[in-house]
Each structure stands twice: as C-alpha cells, then as structure tokens.
Specification:
The protein is mainly alpha-helical. Helix content is 74%, strand content 0%.
Length: 261
C-alpha cells in the first residue's frame, strides 16, 4: 500500500491532468457546463420532495429537503464511483500499455472526478440545510470531515476492486447498476431511518454499509450532533476491509490483467 501511495503521489500531476481532461470532455460545448452538477441534484430533490414529502417525510419540508439533498449527494458519489470505476482499467488501456504507472491511479482518476461533482452538490445541500436551519452548529462542517475522508477511501477501494473484476467479467458494471437500484431503496435517502425501524425493518440499516456514511455526513448537518465513536469505529473498520480487499486484488491480478485488456 505504501508503494502504491508513493507512486500515486509521484505521478500526481499526471493524475490531475487526467481529471481536468475528463471535466473538459464531459462539459465540452455545454452552455451551462459544471452548472449541471448543481441543477441535477436540485431538480431531483424538487421532484422527490413534491412526491414523497407528504408520504415519507411527514409533510415537514424544512426537515425533509436537507435530509434528501445531502443523502442524494453522498449516494451519488458512492454509486458513480463504483459503477464508473468498473471501466477504469479498460478505458485507460492505452496508458497501461505504454507506461508502468500504478494501477490504483486509474480508479482514483474516476473517483476524483466524481468527487468534484459531488462536492458541488454537497455544498448546495449544506447551504440549503443552513437556510432551513439557521441555528445549525458551525462545528458540523468539521464533524463531517472524517465521514468524507472515509467515504472517499471506500469509493477508491471499491472502484479499484470492480475495475479489476470487470476486466475478467465485463457484465460487472451492469450487475452493479441493478444492485445499486436495490441498495438505493434499502438506504434511508428518500425516507427517514425511523420509517424502517417503526415497521420492524431496522436490520436493513445494520447490514447496509451505505448507511454508515450517510449517518456520518448527514446527521451532523441536519441534527447538529457529532457522529459517535462507535459509528466512526465501525465505518473505519469497513473502510479498512475495503482497502485490504483492493490491495489484495491489485497484488493478485496486476501482473496478469494486461493480457486480458
């Protein structure tokens, strides 16, 4: 892992150039450009708020909108990092064949690009949360930092694992897209966690790792309460497992993957 991180740092300028290239290509000839990163979550939140606020949000719009918008930003980052990360090695085949750069660089390219879009959406969510709740504790912006860092590392690890798996089994991305739809409705994003616990489905929260990052990032902003030590420990443990799997996958397959690209 130390070797991978030092190699990534050594080629950080190349990484930043790739991320800038992705941003330029994504918004080339677009009138609004990066503004789509703002419009998309806002539009989705408006739709969900109008349709589900009375059904799942109890009709409390000031509470429901920040809950929904922050949840969508966190979920969008984790989902897109994993799904788009599936093609991280395949789409960078030309670089892999030309230069022996660390394989972790290419999934990181995908995750960094998605992090920029999600950071914009999260910034909008924070502004709306503060607008609805002017008494929001300013320390909440500090309390969410561990959650953001662990979510980023988990997304990088997941993108790395699925990038290698997808080289050998290219239906991985399609399976992930289907699985992501299932996990989305299992996660308390468009509804509150109480909606599950009240119906005896609280165990879904316990087996869903996405809920860890939702709680660490969303709850401090919405409720003003810092994440508990138990929550941080559980999330750190899950992140460590994902990093271990990513390191093991890379060490196992990095010498053979070039023959399957």
């Amino acid at each position: 892992m130390i070797h991978q991180l030092s190699a990534v740092w050594k080629f950080r300028h190349f990484l930043f150039a790739l991320v800038r290239l992705d941003l330029r290509l994504r918004y080339r000839r677009s009138v609004i450009g990066v503004g789509w990163s703002l419009l998309n979550p806002i539009a989705m939140t408006v739709v969900f708020a109008v349709v589900f606020s009375s059904l799942l949000g109890g009709g409390d719009i000031p509470r429901y909108v920040p809950h929904l918008l922050i949840g969508m930003a966190v979920w969008g980052f984790l989902r897109e990092s994993a799904v788009s990360g599936c093609r991280a090695l395949i789409s960078n085949e030309c670089y892999i064949r030309q230069s022996p750069l660390p394989y972790g660089l290419y999934p990181l390219r995908t995750v960094c690009g998605q992090a920029i879009h999600s950071a914009i959406a999260l910034a909008v969510a924070i502004v709306i949360a503060v607008a609805y709740r002017p008494d929001t504790n300013p320390m909440a912006l500090v309390w969410i930092v561990p959650g953001l860092l662990l979510a980023f590392l988990t997304a990088w690890a997941a993108a790395t694992i699925f990038a290698f798996v997808n080289v050998y089994f290219q239906d991985t991305q399609h399976l992930l897209e289907v699985g992501a739809q299932i996990v989305f409705f299992m996660s308390p994003i468009i509804y509150y966690p109480q909606n599950l616990t009240d119906k005896g489905r609280g165990w879904l929260l316990l087996i869903n790792p996405v809920n860890l990052y939702l709680d660490m990032i969303r709850d401090p902003l919405v409720t003003g309460v810092p994440p508990s030590a138990q929550l941080l420990g559980t999330a750190a443990g899950f992140t460590a497992v994902m990093i271990g799997l990513a390191i093991g996958t890379t060490a196992w397959l990095q010498k053979r993957v070039i023959f399957h690209l």
